[in-house]
Design goal:
Layout lengths: L4 H25 L3 H21 L3 H20 L4 H21 L4 H10 L10 H27 L1 H6 L4 H23 L4 H15 L3 H26 L3 H30 L1
Helix pairs in contact: 1-6, 1-8, 1-9, 1-10, 2-3, 2-4, 2-5, 2-8, 2-9, 3-4, 3-8, 5-8, 6-8, 9-10, 9-11, 10-11
Length: about 270
């Protein structure tokens, strides 16, 4: 389990979990789950298009995910964010379908884009994944106070001179970068569950931002490691376990929050 090709899988899985835990915490805190779902789908369309023309899929992932983030952020200023995101998602899915229909490498290539190929990660992919992961984490650390303020108290943030729309735009670009890094590993359809389940569970365990952020990272790491080990021993897809374990963590978190709330009411 810890030798041969599995070494790369463990390394990449750890990097992905760290980034998903950090970025996903603010995705949940800011209520940006729909955008975090739409942008990976845009990245999927870009990767499919890049594969069609014979370009490195990472280039297509990066171009389309950043374009999706900037488009959603820009257009949301003049309209409802959910409507803009939905329209962007529809457009990107349509492009993805068009690219797929013209591809001659349908099954293996598209399957890996949708569900990831973590067990097939090569040594040459480690450096780009690590670099993009570091960029995402550093960006969140730089924006941490502004993200926290505009998430919890946007009116106070605006009164202090912060521009919530600029912070939102910067955060969407961070999501785009994390998408570019994670889609080849866990897939466009499953990075969403890793970015939402563990952070949402962490917020149920504690209301303190710093502790919740650390808990989000820890839960994401445990989720990916358990998914990888389970996939190795059962020969089931890693993405299946990522989705199931993320949902289980969320259920545990909500149950804990409910029990704590009931006990608080009974003591009062």
């Amino acid at each position: 389990m810890f030798s041969g090709f599995m070494v790369n899988a463990w390394i990449v899985a750890t990097i992905v979990a760290l980034v998903a835990g950090v970025v996903g915490f603010f995705v949940v805190l800011r209520g940006s789950a729909f955008q975090a779902h739409a942008i990976p789908n845009g990245a999927f369309a870009g990767a499919a298009g890049a594969n069609l023309v014979g370009v490195n899929p990472l280039i297509g992932l990066g171009v389309f995910s950043i374009a999706a983030a900037l488009g959603i952020g820009r257009l949301s200023r003049r309209g409802r964010s959910d409507v803009v995101t939905a329209l962007a998602l529809m457009m990107m899915l349509a492009l993805g379908a068009a690219f797929i229909s013209q591809s001659t490498q349908y099954e293996p290539q598209i399957f890996s884009l949708l569900f990831g190929e973590i067990l097939g990660v090569s040594s040459s992919q480690l450096a780009p994944v690590a670099a993009l992961g570091a960029v995402c984490v550093i960006a969140v650390l730089v924006l941490y106070r502004r993200l926290l303020m505009t998430s919890i108290a946007p009116e106070i943030a605006a009164a202090r001179g912060l521009r919530p729309e600029r912070v939102e735009m910067a955060f969407l670009v961070v999501i785009a970068c994390s998408t570019t890094m994670t889609v080849p590993v866990v897939g466009a359809l499953l990075i969403f569950s890793l970015m939402i389940g563990p952070p949402a569970a962490a917020r149920s365990f504690t209301s303190r931002p710093e502790i919740a952020l650390l808990a989000s990272i820890a839960i994401a790491l445990v989720t990916v490691w358990a998914a990888l080990a389970s996939s190795y021993t059962t020969n089931w897809p890693v993405g299946f376990y990522v989705g199931v374990f993320s949902a289980v963590w969320f259920g545990v978190g909500r149950t804990y929050a409910h029990v704590r709330r009931v006990r608080g009411v009974s003591r009062a």
